[in-house]
Structures are given as C-alpha cells and as structure tokens.
Q: What sequence folds into this?
C-alpha cells in the first residue's frame, strides 16, 4: 500500500518538465513494476500450494 501512495503523491511527473519529468516518470514506473512483481509472486505461490493441500496456514 505505501508503494501505491508513493506512486500517486511523491512522483509528481505531471507538473515537471525536462530531465526532472523523466526522472520522476522513471521512478513512477519502477514502483509500478515492483507492485506487478509482488502480485505475480503471490499468484505463483498460490498456484503452487492450492488450498486444502494439508499445508499449515496461519
């Protein structure tokens, strides 16, 4: 969740120009890639261990 907030608030690429615009935009997409990687890892882990396989959960 903090990554989503950082994407929306901290990377104000919409109001910048020149090199600052591209640096903020790059950081924005880096956070987007981080979120996508975490979602993908979670989905792959869930596919590997489906519910009801006897594995202990907390």
A:
């Amino acid at each position: 969740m903090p990554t989503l907030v950082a994407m929306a608030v901290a990377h104000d690429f919409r109001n910048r120009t020149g090199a600052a615009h591209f640096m903020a935009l790059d950081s924005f997409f880096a956070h987007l890639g981080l979120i996508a990687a975490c979602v993908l890892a979670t989905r792959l882990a869930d596919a590997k261990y489906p519910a009801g396989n006897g594995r202990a959960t907390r």
